[in-house]
């Protein structure tokens, strides 16, 4: 089993402005020693560490952790895609085989078309030429820009994080589902079954509440383009690691062992070249 989406950090408020007082439980260090015990307890053999801060030292921090902890199979870092010396920065990462791709916290950008900025698109072109993947962290209202990006790079490996964060707490599904269905025709785009519990009411959700959204993801991406991600430690706002994993376990109960193996491990291994 592979956890295709989790985070580490040494907490410093200046580095994580998105961790507001409402997210008090996240205002501490979260490091591999803690997660390693959780993964072992849950039968998860490896993970992908994803950036949570937007500066170059974040990528180096995650790569150092990956070097020291074999269960961290891959890193999705951050890089300034609009930097004038982007190619030079990427060249410096060549020795780091565990660096698999990059992500920008697009959900925090006020402009819903931020991803379509010419400089950003040019940067994407550069990282895709170098063989890296890209994680799309967007809200539903930003999916139009994501879709155009997918069309602009018809062979580049991209994955939508956290189901694009539909309004699960309010039962909003129809407009989200319509937008998501557009991605089904692009075999180079995957979806992560992650980040769901924090989009619901944190203290009153039930595993069955997520089934309509998970069913949509299966309809859109199919068994070969879905992967599990815990979103630990952010998930702790609304549930334990075991509870988050249990949501996907419930959804996959009716599928064959082959399909379950793909979602739990094989698809992440293939997408991120783990």
From TrEMBL:
Recorded GO terms, molecular function?
hydrolase activity
Q: Which domain of life is it from?
A: Bacteria
> Record's InterPro entries?
Amidohydro-rel (IPR006680), Metal_Hydrolase (IPR032466), Metallo-dep_Lactonases (IPR052350)
Is-annotated flag, keyword Hydrolase?
A: yes
Looking at the record, the residues that make up the Amidohydrolase-related domain are: 2-273
**Keywords carried by this UniProt record:** Hydrolase
Give the family, as the similarity comment puts it: Belongs to the metallo-dependent hydrolases superfamily.
Task: Please identify the protein, giving its name as recorded.
Answer: L-fuconolactone hydrolase
Q: Name the source organism.
A: Lunatimonas lonarensis
Lineage of the species this protein comes from: Bacteria, Pseudomonadati, Bacteroidota, Cytophagia, Cytophagales
